[in-house]
Design a protein that fits this description.
This protein has one domain: 5'-nuclease (Rossmann fold). Helices cover 50% and strands 8% of the residues. It has nine helices and five strands, in the order E-H-H-E-H-H-E-H-H-H-E-H-E-H. Helix 8 links the parallel strand 4 and strand 5. Helix 5 packs across helix 7 and helix 7 runs parallel beside helix 8.
């Protein structure tokens, strides 16, 4: 079975703002669209991207049929698992739980969907590093949470290589 990639908001925002602006690198966006059958886009990610009212929000809006509702009952068990880990882990403080408990934040939904469906998360986030009980963090990072749940994640560039993007 082919891998299915679950894309974080920053895998769209970072390229748009730096490496692959729409006007300068349309082939990147065409390659993404060409590979839609290998991606899952959560509605929580969509909502984060539609805020901008720019080329990216228009591009995302054109993918309506590809958006997956992440708040389905099928993901609630896994979503609660993620929040329970954040709540019970001595490496995170109350601010971390408050942040990830916000239903509009996509990160815990990405983790939940990956737990449930074995998707590979695509993100530019890096591990927080130095997590410890003496100085708990208020900012959970996707790679740290993926490590705890034994989930796979890659950067956008690794995904592009795996899917043989040619720009």
């Amino acid at each position: 079975m082919d891998e299915i990639y679950l894309l974080d908001s920053n895998t769209f925002i970072t390229p748009k703002n730096s490496y692959y602006p729409f006007m300068m690198a349309p082939s990147f966006w065409k390659q993404l669209k060409k590979n839609l059958d290998k991606f899952v886009l959560l509605d929580s990610v969509e909502q984060e991207l539609l805020v901008g009212k720019d080329d990216l929000s228009e591009w995302i809006d054109s993918l309506k049929s590809q958006i997956t509702d992440c708040k389905k009952r099928t993901l609630l068990k896994e979503y609660r698992q993620v929040l329970a880990y954040i709540s019970g882990c001595e490496y995170y403080n109350d601010r971390a739980l408050d942040k990830w408990s916000d239903q509009s934040v996509a990160d815990p939904w990405l983790i939940a969907a990956s737990i449930k469906n074995h998707y590979k998360i695509v993100t530019f986030e890096k591990r927080a590093g130095g997590l410890n009980a003496h100085n708990p963090s208020g900012n959970p990072k996707i790679p740290d949470i993926c490590d705890y749940f034994s989930l796979d994640y890659v950067t956008l560039f690794q995904m592009m290589e795996n899917l043989h993007f040619h720009l």
